[in-house]
Amino acid sequence: MKNNLFYDIDLNRVPNHIAIIMDGNGRWAKSKFLPRTAGHKAGVETIRTVLRECKKLNVKHVTLYAFSTENWKRPKLEVDTLMNLLSTYLKNEVATLHKENVKLTAVGDIDSLPSQCVKELNNGIELTKNNTGCNLNLALNYGGRLDIKNALVDIIKDVKVGKINLDEIDENTISNHLSTKCIPDPDLVIRTSGEERLSNFLLWEVAYAEFYFTNVHWPDFDEKELQKAIFTYQNRDRRFGGIK
Ligand code: IPE
Ligand code: IPE
Ligand code: MG
Q1: What is the pLDDT of residues 116-174, one digit of tens each?
Q2: Buried (b) or exposed (e) across 42-77, using 16+ Cβ within 10 A?
Q3: CA of 98 to the centre of ligand 3 (A)
Q4: Which of 44, 54, 148, 237 is 20 to 30 A from 223 (CA-CA)?
Q5: Does 165 reside within a domain?
Q6: Active site (annotated) includes residue 71
Q7: Which of 20, 22, 23 for a ligand 2 pocket mutation test, highest count of atoms within 8 Å of Cβ?
């Protein structure tokens, strides 16, 4: 181990923004003959571990896909458990996040979440808004298509009242109307548990992100797995359409 690292990571070239599709809680639980909800509880522990490691490695932005606009299709008991875990996590964790200079943000249709979650989330966002350390961005009731649709509606409204001219609209106009407008595009997207799809995550923003898929279920993902993902990322050749 060099520099106390499992992989030979260049600490000067860590991704600025890592976005994670935390998948596989249910399959992890099933493999242990546990209810799916036990998988979600174990998944919360992984969030703590991964965030700690991101702070250690100086990753500036971490977006976690915690609940999609499609996840409402799940049985009520599972949705309720996820919402309870969210509000409990925030309730227990916000003071610590604040102490560690973490800035909490959220993207998605937040106001349609249960009121307890909205309350805890807004408390956390307000408390940590001036922090300058790592940015923990939670994607909650988030859907990439919904976000793009909302941006379009807002832009059309701005055009209608004469705030923007039609011929001034460019790619930045769209980026600046998405709920992710304050966060740079992700450099690295990680999806755990073997599925290799986006499931409606950050559709616009991932245009030039690197993708890393692992079969490890989210509750088993740890410091070493995160370092492996970053190491793999650092060995990719990002060309952005140009040549090297
Ligand atoms: C990810 O794990 C958590 C959420 C989507 C909220 P899953 O619950 O999707 O786990 P699998 O994919 O069924 O194993
Ligand atoms: C994506 O995972 C959403 C989150 C991780 C929050 P899903 O488990 O919902 O995605 P699909 O249904 O397998 O595509
Ligand atoms: Mg899943």
Answers
A1: 999 999 999 999 999 999 999 999 999 999 999 999 999 999 999 999 999 999 999 99
A2: bbbebbeebbebbbebebbbbbbbbbbbebeeeeee
A3: 30
A4: 237
A5: no
A6: yes
A7: 23
71 vs 114, 200, 231, CA distance in Å? 14, 11, 31
pLDDT of 3 over the 80 cut: no
Query: Could you tell me the distance, in angstroms and rounded to a whole number, from the CA of residue 101 to the centre of ligand 3?
Result: 31
Q: In the annotation, is 147 catalytic?
A: no
Cα dihedral sign for 192, 239, 58, 128? negative
State how far the alpha carbon of 186 is from the alpha carbons of 60, 88, 170, 214, 228, in Å. 11, 27, 20, 18, 17
**53 domain residue, yes or no:** yes
For 4-44, the DSSP string reads TBSS---GGG--SEEEEE---HHHHHHHTT--HHHHHHHHH
> What are the tokens at 74?
């799940």
Let me know if residue 204 belongs to a domain: yes
φ/ψ bin of 141: left (φ > 0), alpha (ψ from -120 to 50), beta (otherwise): left
How many domains does the chain contain in total?
A: 1
**Residue 198: CATH number of its domain:** 3.40.1180.10
214 neighbors 190 (Cβ within 8 angstroms): yes
pTM value is 0.98
In 3D space, the residue among 185, 184, 180, 158 whose CA is nearest the CA of residue 169 turns out to be 158
63-89 tens-digit pLDDT: 999 999 999 999 999 999 999 999 999
Structural domain boundaries enclosing 113:
14-143+186-231
Q: Would residue 68 count as lying in a domain?
A: yes
